[in-house]
Amino acid sequence: MTAVFEFWLVTYKRVWRGSALSTFVLPVLTVLGFGLGVGEYVDGGVEGVPYLDWIVPGLIASTVMQVAIFESTWPVLSNFNWVRTYEGQAATPVRLDDILGGNLLYVLFRALTGAVAFLLVAAVFGALHTWWALAVLPVSLLLALAFAAPTFAYSSSVSSDSYLALLFRFAVIPMSLFAGVFFPVESLPVGLRWLAYASPLWHGVDISRAATLGVPAEWSVPGHLLYLALWAGGGYAIARIRFKKRLVV
Amino acid sequence: MLTLVLPRLVSFEGGGRRSASVTERNVAALKSAYWVVLISGFFEPLLYLLSIGVGVGGLVGDLTLPSGQVVEYAEFVAPAMLAAAAMSGALSETTFNFFGKMKFMKLYDGVLATPVRPFEIALGELAWAMVRGSLYSAAFLVVMFALDLTTGPRALAAFPAAVLVGFAFGALGMALSTFMRGWQDFDLIGSAQFALFLFSGTFVPAESYPTVLRWVVEVTPLYRAVELLRGISTGTLGASGWLDVAYLLAVVAIGLAVASRRMATLLCK
Fold it and tell me: What is the per-residue pLDDT across B188-236, written as a single tens digit (0 to 9) for each?
């Protein structure tokens, strides 16, 4: 598995400069434009904290989701259909779990760097209230896996990349807009509220918010972790079946 | 420039007909899944409007425009979403897709073997981007009207303005694409687009920016587009609207001129 992970790191070495720019610059822009800009107009903040501090943990979780899902869509489809990297790996002594796990490790690594970058930016803006904020990092890993594993299963099942665009349009963007990142879920109408609660993102947002603000989570933390673990485990199991079907002859 | 563009847009002989063929090719090449992507593209600005305009609007409350008029936050954000949607719609078609067709699919090498010339390809592709963008704009304006964020006559007046915004960004995107070396460069366009999206008076009035930033923002195309559309949809448009229109027309003209020139050097070797 480490060999496969190493392989992805080596390919990342070629392009890391470009991604470093967007990993750091985009959080700064969002914090400035949205947190400070709109925050100025939110009188009294949200739930007693300034708007900027309130959305930062949500933005971190949302960034983790976007990195995790992006790295599990086009790259995976391309590794199957276009570049056929997986076929090459399957022809070596590397096992199925290594191919899948090694690639997932790389996705987690990318998501973690995104979370670290955002956390640093947030610290500079004074949006972190306690040292518990560091707990956001392990949570981000679990959250990333809860998104990446099912997305691997999805990307290895669809026939064309148009379906990947649909995933973003109907799952990723709605989640990032309505799962409690920019405004409390409680202000949604009841039906939509339950959709938001069902999304893995909301669970990640709630724990992260509790961690950076040093307040109790709205729901139980073990419950959140268990729910995310279910997505991760279930996603991995399905992805494994799909990978086996396509790679093991 | 206008004397060069207009006759070709209007007449359906010669150049106009050949540009239209380029557009028709795009329609003929649509596949089923792509249709869904195309149609669902409309939902994105709507979701943003509901989340930011209504959701965050619940936290922000009402805003006072520079003119002194007090508007709901959703009323304030909606025209900006319209402008941003026109921008991203036009850019996605004229940067990513256009570049792919030119560099990797080598589509235009084939097209150039016919009587179609580079300028006509640029025009035809732009027309296609505009068909797509205009449909989104029209649908969004209907939603704005339905949610009572603008009035019927204002929505009608905003439509041609939204199309103009799409044209400006389409031409700009096409010109930029001809300078791209590879897919990595598109990260830069993406980041720039995101920065424009955040800082063009989209979510807060530009008056609240620090002075230096404000002057930078004033000259960016998305800010001018937001100003124009917001002026129309809230009914506060002053004489500066003509300045916005002139600015956007100039972007169209320059973008098209650069794009066709660069394409001629890239393709006709």
Answer: 788 888 888 888 888 888 888 888 888 888 888 899 999 899 989 888 8
A166–B40 CB contact, under 8 Å: yes
Identify the pLDDT of residue B4: 57
The domain containing residue B171 runs over which residues?
Answer: 2-267
DSSP 8-state class, residue B71: E
List of chain A residues whose C-beta atoms are within 8 Å of the C-beta of residue B55: 177-178, 182-183, 187-188
The DSSP string of A174-235 is HHHHHSSSSS-GGGS-HHHHHHHHHSHHHHHHHHHHHHHHT---SS-HHHHHHHHHHHHHHH
User: What's the domain count of chain B?
Assistant: 1
Look at residue A131 in the predicted model and tell me its pLDDT: 93
Q: What's the token pair of residue B201?
A: 């008076």
Q: Which residues of A touch B184 (CB under 8 A)?
A: 15, 18
Closest Cα in chain A, distance from residue B152 (Å): 28
Q: Where are the domains of chain A?
A: 2-247
pLDDT for A179? 93
Cβ burial of B205 (10 Å; 0-12, 13-18, 19+) is middle
pLDDT, residue B52, reads 87
As a whole number of angstroms, the distance between CA B228 and CA B83 comes to 9
Gap from A199 CA to chain B (nearest CA, Å): 16
State pTM to two decimals: 0.85
Percent of chain A exceeding pLDDT 90 equals: 49
More confident residue, B100 or A5: A5
Rg (CA), chain A: 18
Question: Do the Cβ atoms of B187 and A38 come within 8 Å?
Answer: no
Chain A residue at shortest CA distance from B62: A41
ipTM of predicted assembly, 2 dp: 0.82
Helix (H, G, I), strand (E, B) or coil at B49: helix
